[in-house]
Amino acid sequence: AVYECLRGGLDFTKDDENVNSQPFMRWRDRFLFCAEAIYKAQAETGEIKGHYLNATAGTVEQMMKRAEFAKELGMPIIMHDYLTGGFTANTTLSDYCRDNGLLLHIHRAMHAVIDRQRNHGIHFRVLAKALRMSGGDHLHSGTVVGKLEGEREVTLGFVDLMRDDHVEKDRNRGIYFTQQWCAMGGTLPVASGG
């Protein structure tokens, strides 16, 4: 399926966030199959292609093995579920990716358990800011339409918090104080959720 999508015109495909290393699809085999599909599609189209390989695992050591193997295969990007994998693991992967020329795509699997409850939990703007501090090149941000629809102004507010160096206080957008990120790199918001 990866090859067919890339050959058909997509630039990137991705593992589902639930795809880890199940008995029917071990991570190493999946990485090899995806690498083969990418190289074949690139050779046939003359275009750069990629696949977000899910490096999330039960331990940081396992995640690093997956990141290192992706690099050995010449893959341009890996994916991490930062809420299920943890912030320390995410920072470790982020540092490795920066040092080794890999992009790190961040998935927000499990966020709804934390941020969709109005009476308790942690708002996604806080989770997005924590991710920006932890590291990652892009993060699923939801959308203002579709199945992961959020309030338009609030969604645009946390999109600003992810990417802009300076964000002014704007209560309508859910920004309760001016945020100056100084030299801290941003995270590209990626629309998600259909």
Question: Topology, pairings included?
Answer:
Blueprint: H1 2-7, E1 12-14, H2 27-45, E2 50-54, H3 60-72, E3 77-81, H4 82-85, H5 87-100, E4 103-107, H6 111-115, H7 124-134, E5 138-140, H8 152-163, E6 166-167, E7 179-180, E8 188-190
Parallel strand pairs: 1-2, 2-3, 3-4, 4-5, 5-8
Antiparallel strand pairs: 6-7
Helix pairs in contact: 3-5, 7-8
Descriptive overview:
- It catalyses: D-ribulose 1,5-bisphosphate + O2 = 2-phosphoglycolate + (2R)-3-phosphoglycerate + 2 H(+); 2 (2R)-3-phosphoglycerate + 2 H(+) = D-ribulose 1,5-bisphosphate + CO2 + H2O.
- Residues 1-194 form the Ribulose bisphosphate carboxylase large subunit C-terminal domain.
- Its EC number is 4.1.1.39.
- There is one protein chain.
- The chain has 194 residues and is of the alpha/beta class.
- The protein folds into 2 domains: 1-107, Ribulose bisphosphate carboxylase, large subunit, C-terminal domain (TIM Barrel), CATH 3.20.20.110; 111-194, no CATH class.
- It has helices spanning 2-7, 27-45, 60-72, 82-85, 87-100, 111-115, 124-134, 152-163, and strands at 12-14, 50-54, 77-81, 103-107, 138-140, 166-167, 179-180, 188-190.
- Helix 3 runs parallel beside helix 5 and helix 7 runs parallel beside helix 8.
- It is globular and about 50 Å long.
- The mean pLDDT is 90.
